[in-house]
Amino acid sequence: MGRVKRVFQQIDPPARLLMGPGPINADPRVLRAMSAQLVGQYDPAMTAYMDETQALYREVFQTANEQTVLVDGTSRAGIEAALVSLIEPGDRVLVPVFGRFGHLLREIAERCGAEVHVIEVPWGQVFPLETITAAIERVKPKLLAVVHGDTSTTVAQPLEGLGEVCAQHGVLFYTDVTASISGNAFDTDALGLDAVTAGLQKCLGGPSGSAPATFSARAVEAIRSRASVEAGIRTEGDVTSSRRIASNYFDLAMIFDYWGPQRLNHHTEATTMLYGARECARLVVEEGLDQTVARHALHGSAMLAGVQGLGLEVFGDLEHKMNNVVAVVIPDGVDGDAVRGAMLTDFGIEIGTSFGPLHGKVWRIGTMGYNARRDTVLTTLSALEAVLRRAGAPVTTGGGVGAAYDVYADADRAAASSPVETRADAGTIAPEAASTDGTAGGAA
Amino acid sequence: MGRVKRVFQQIDPPARLLMGPGPINADPRVLRAMSAQLVGQYDPAMTAYMDETQALYREVFQTANEQTVLVDGTSRAGIEAALVSLIEPGDRVLVPVFGRFGHLLREIAERCGAEVHVIEVPWGQVFPLETITAAIERVKPKLLAVVHGDTSTTVAQPLEGLGEVCAQHGVLFYTDVTASISGNAFDTDALGLDAVTAGLQKCLGGPSGSAPATFSARAVEAIRSRASVEAGIRTEGDVTSSRRIASNYFDLAMIFDYWGPQRLNHHTEATTMLYGARECARLVVEEGLDQTVARHALHGSAMLAGVQGLGLEVFGDLEHKMNNVVAVVIPDGVDGDAVRGAMLTDFGIEIGTSFGPLHGKVWRIGTMGYNARRDTVLTTLSALEAVLRRAGAPVTTGGGVGAAYDVYADADRAAASSPVETRADAGTIAPEAASTDGTAGGAA
C-alpha cells in the first residue's frame, strides 16, 4: 500500500485573535463546558440539558415556539433542515438575494426541488419592504426565504413588516440569522417568523458545529404533515406520509420527536456540541440579550469609526450594516492578502477576505461574541495602522485608535449619566452560586 | 409572551461509566484536545490539522484513498452524505438488512429516490456470502449498501469476498462501520470498498458529532460527475451538472473541494469536533490499530465470559459477535428497565436497552474505546451481580467477575510467553515529546 503510519503532535493551535467575519475565538467558558465528560443519550442529566437548551434558545431567539432545537451540524445544516423539511418538490419559493448566503438559500431550495424565484439587489444594499411585498404578490410563494444578516456584504435585511405580508398571503416566513443573532436586535415572534436557523460561530461565541433553530406552530404543522417513522424503530399504527421529507438526517419531524417527550431515537445527539451550544446561550441570557446586542453595537461602532479614522473607506449601506462586521475597502495599490498575512503572522490577528464580487476588494473585520471587546478593537486598529504603514499605504497616524477611543469616551459619558449594564457588572443575573435552583432573574 | 428568563447552572454532568452500545465515555485526551482555542478556517494551522486528520483516518480505515474526510454531523450524517452523493433517483440499491441500521440504510436510500431491494435475515444472524452474491446477480444494483457491525443485534456482517463480487458486476460497495471501526478487524482497501462511513462515539472514544468517511477513486468519479459549484462563489468556467446531488450540505464533491488543495469554501468546519476527531484517530494510531482491535477482543471476551459466568444467556450468533458489545437476555421475571435504572442510580453505570424486535428482551453491554478496560469490565460485572441478586434473579455468586478474571489470566499467560503490546507500554510509538517532527513509527 505504501502507507506510512504517521503520528502527529497533540492539538496545540497558535494564539490567534480572530477578528474576521467568523469563526471568532470561542468564549473560554464555552470551551470549558465542552470539556465535560459525556453522559448517556437518555440519561436524565442529558435530557434535562436538552430541555434547558431549548428554553435558553427560546430566549436567544425571542420566541415561545415549543419546537426550538439544535440541528447537529454547521449553520448550513440548520438551513438545509429548515428548507428540506418545509419545501416539497414543485413548491414556489421566493428568495431575495443581497449577498452570498442568499445564493446559498436559492441553491438549497433548488436542490429541494422548489420552483425558486429570485429577486436581487447589488451586494452592499438591502431591499425596501415594498419590493419584497410586490414579489410576494407576484410570485405567490409557499415560502419566503431570506437571510437576515449576510456577512459577505455586512448588511442586514430589515425584516419588519414582512411577517404581516406573509401572514396575509399565507406564506411561510423563514430567515437565517447565523451572522446576526445576539449581535443585532432580533425578535422571532414579533417579526412573525415561522422558521429561524442560526449557528454558534459568530456573536454567540462558540465553535461551528451546532445549528440552533426554531419553528412556529404553523411551520411545525407543515412539517408534521410529512412525518414518517424510521423502519428500524417503527411500531404498529405509525404513519408514513407519501410526501416524505427527502432527507432523513434533516427530517425535522423526527428531530422534534427526538427532542420532545417521546424521545424517539433519531441521531445520537452530539453531546459535546450541545454542551457548547447551551453555554453560548447561557452567556447571552446571563448578560441579557439587550445588553449583548448593545455591546456589539458599541464595539462595532468603535471599529467602524476606527477604520474610517485611519482614512479607510468602508463598503456597503451603513444604515443597514450589522453591528458585528465591517467591510473595509482595500486601498489602491495595497496587496490585500499581504496585509492579511502580515496581520496574522506579525500580530496574530486574523481579518477576513471576501467572496464573489467583493473578492480582492474589501477586508471584512468582525467584532463579535467573545471578541466584541474594547481591547480587541483597539489592538486590531493599532496593528492595522502599523501593517498598512509598512505596506506603504497612506494612513492617518493614530486616527484609528483615536476615533475608537472617542466612541468609548462618548459611551462612558452616556453610561455615567444613565448606567448601561455590561457583562462584568450585569445586575439582573444572580452569580452562578445563587442560581442553583435553575431559575433566576425576572420576566424577559 | 409569558416567557420567563431562566438561567441554568453550568454544565456539570454526574459521573457515569457508560457501558452501553455507545456513546461511551470520551477518552479524556479527546476532551482535552477539544478544549483548545479555535483558529481561523483557512489558518495554516487549521488546514494542516485538516491534512493530518485525513492522514490519520487513512490509517484508521486502512486505505490509501485520497478522499478521506470528516462529514460535520453525527454518524448518520456520514451515511446520508455517502448515499445521497452516490445514488441518483431511480438507481437500484441492494441493502442486506440484519438489524436496525440496515433499515436505516434502506430508508435513506429510499429518500434518495433509489429503487431499493432488501434482503433480510432475522436479527442476531448475518448473511452467507452466497446469499448476497445471488442477490447482486439478481438485482444488478448500482450500489450495495451494507452495515458492517450493527449494535442493535451486536453482530458484524463478514464483508470478505463481497468486494470481488461487486467489482465483477460493476457494483459500488458501501459500508457503515460506526459500530465496528477500530474495535474489530477492518481494512477498507483489502475489502475492495468504495465508500465507508463512521462515527466517533463507539470504539474511537470520542463524542458523537463528526463522521469520518473515505471514498475510493471509483466512488469519487461517480460523485464528481455530479459536481456543482455554489452560486455565491461560482466563477466563469465552473460547471453545474444536471444530475446535481439533492443535498448541498451532504454534497461530497463540494466537501472534497473544501478538504482538497482548492480549499473551496463550503461549510465552516466544526473546528472543535475536528480537534476531537483528530485526537480519536491519533489515539488509535499511537496504540497501533491491531493492538486497539486486540484490546477490544480481550475485554469483549472477558465481558462475554462474565455475563455467561453469571448464568445469563446471550443473544445472537456469537461466531459473528462484534468484539465491543454483547446482548444479554433479560431473565424471565426480571424488569429490564428497573435493573438498568438501579445500575445507573446506585452504581453510576449505564448499560443499554434495545430497539425493535429485541426491545424489552435484551440489555446491550459495550466494552469500547476508552471503556475497553479491565477495571470497567470487572466493575460492571460486579455491579450487575449485585443488582440482579437484589432484583431476585438467580445469579451465580462471583461467577461473572471470576470468569472475566480467568480470561485475563489466560491473556496474561499468553502475553508472558509472547508479549502483546497494550496502550500503557506501546512499544512502536515514541512518547509525545519525541514525535515533535510530526512523524514516527514505521510502515503500517
TrEMBL record, chains A, B:
Coiled coil: none annotated. Residues 45-351 form the Aminotransferase class V domain. InterPro entries: Aminotrans_V_dom, PyrdxlP-dep_Trfase, PyrdxlP-dep_Trfase_major, PyrdxlP-dep_Trfase_small. GO terms for molecular function: transaminase activity. Gene3D superfamilies: Aspartate Aminotransferase, domain 1, Type I PLP-dependent aspartate aminotransferase-like (Major domain). SUPFAM superfamilies: PLP-dependent transferases. Residues 419-444 are annotated as: Disordered. Its cofactor is pyridoxal 5'-phosphate. Keywords: Aminotransferase, Pyridoxal phosphate, Transferase. This is Aminotransferase V. It comes from Frigoribacterium faeni.
